[in-house]
Amino acid sequence: MLSEDILYFSVRELGERIRGGTVSPVELAESFLARSEELGPKLNAFATITRDLALQQARAAEKEISSGHYRGPLHGVPYAAKDLVAVEGYPTTWGARPLVKQSFNYNATVIEKLNRAGAVLIGKAAMIELAGGLGYSSGDASLTGPCKNPWNTKYWTCGSSSGSGAIVASAMAPWAIGSDTRGSIICPSSWCGISGMRPSFGRVSRRGAMAIAWTMDKLGPMARTADDCGLVLSVLAGHDPLDFDSLPAGISDFTYPAPAREPGNPIRVGRLTNVWNEQQPGLEAAVDAALKVLEKNGATIADVEMPDLPYEEAAELTILMESASAFQELIVSGRCAELIDPVGKINGYASQEFSVGDYLQVQRVRTFLQAQVDKLFERFDVLAAAGESSAASPLSAPPEEDSAGPIERRAPDGVSSLCGLPAISVPCGLSKEQLPFGVQFVGRALDDHAVIAAARMFQSHTEWHKMRPPIS
Amino acid sequence: MSKPSSNNSHGPIPVKDANHADTKSARISRREFGLDAAAAATAAAAFSLSPPSLLTRRRDLDNISPTIPAGEQESAKAKLTPEQSRDVEAKLANIIGKYGERLSEEQREHLRRILAYNETLLAPIRAFALQNGDPPVTVSKLSSGENID
Known about the structure:
CATH architecture of chain A: Alpha-Beta Complex
Radius of gyration of chain B: 20 Å
Oligomer: heterodimer
Strand content of chain A: 5-15%
Strand content of chain B: under 5%
Order of helices and strands of chain A: HHHEHEHEEEHEHEEHEHEHHHHEHEEH
Number of strands of chain A: 13
Number of helices of chain B: 4
Distance between the termini of chain B: 15 Å
CATH class of chain A: Alpha Beta
Structural class of chain B: mainly alpha
């Protein structure tokens, strides 16, 4: 078995060693599988471990590479996929009890792309049931049980890409596919101390992935570094005629790395000052310190406020309204009662009561909201804020309904998810409980390079992304 | 299916007026007026409909539970306008008419709280000033057949 040090290598580092012949894809897969089989159940991180497929793909990769047929930087590199992505021959449960026997006779487009790249699928990552599509109130709302945070197993990973966060943070795989409708990549990445990216809407095909809200759903990479996110995104991105919202060819493609920025053209960072109602002590200082690192290395930093408009309301309503359609069969049949969370069991009934007029009103208001946030990018390349308003919460925390507070109407996740903007969260510190803090960078629609550039600049001068949780 | 306008990737989405005849300055003025009105309506809604005790803390979820602490249900109802309260009760009656045999008393009360919360989400959206020609982000996308699986 390979050492833990190697299992914590980045995708880039692993790819280079595989290409150079110093790491065997088969040995690598076996090592990640062994770790996953040992740690996965302790963290409730996997829905399925695809041992047979992983070894088959790893052997094929090893044979091809040794014969001189190298497919690229993901060739022979293991990964996990959130269990809402269809993989032929394996269950795809969407994390939901009523769908425990569901499977598909085809691969999602992203899986097909990764197969062509020679990547090695070691398992399907656990997730919140229906990715929270019918609502949920705690991390218990998962077919596989509450996902435990590798930094402290008494704490949650956040959702809904809960397993993907735990898997990468504890080196059960070097990267994983997550999905993000409203914060489901950014929050688990922040709470698990990893680098997670939500690409621009339409850049990555969702064909074969569960839908919650067609106008907001995205798939993206969760990895150890921002550089890895760029590397993986370059493989995942591209037009797919089978995804109706896929961006056209030429726009959807993502070339990585981007051309170097011209000298004298620094990254312009807008520090969002009004997006969280309240932040955990120490978090704001950690974000400020992160931005100082950027400033010291040539970026310009200026304060900016998010427009005080109903972003969160529009985001939540869009999700509620579209998910009532996406999950209509579960609602009408009554099978939603089989879900675990008390909210998920009934929320769809309430969402069916929204009117067509209200839906269209939300979507018309959304046009204005998009334009308003876009104006900010005339002055800034990226907007920066804490990845979440706190570090991870305890698994024993009371359900959401018992922790009432004001709505986060300008929360960066709500704004950027609603408006289809790219975002990335990278670790930037630790709380006094030794749980990770994250800083997120949000970019203009389609400027995915900007958020990666800001995060890479930060990571090239800091070590937070090299932290390891106290689990083995 | 629908998607956000891709126009916003390189600049603000142009305002489309109903009669398409306004000058640039008039368009800006009108738009700003609409946004100001919306902001004012939002502030009013926040004051009258969305006190902190009414709203679930937004934290980390794709679709967070829209619930109100049970003990505050009466005060929550009191913050809704009469029209909103009627809307909540009408929707609840409709749900019970369709699915009542599936729902316990506790779930019916929970649904009432969810519906009340949804009203607070809708208030600033309904109050947002829009013109006849202001389009939704959803668009009808022409297809040559390549999208057929």
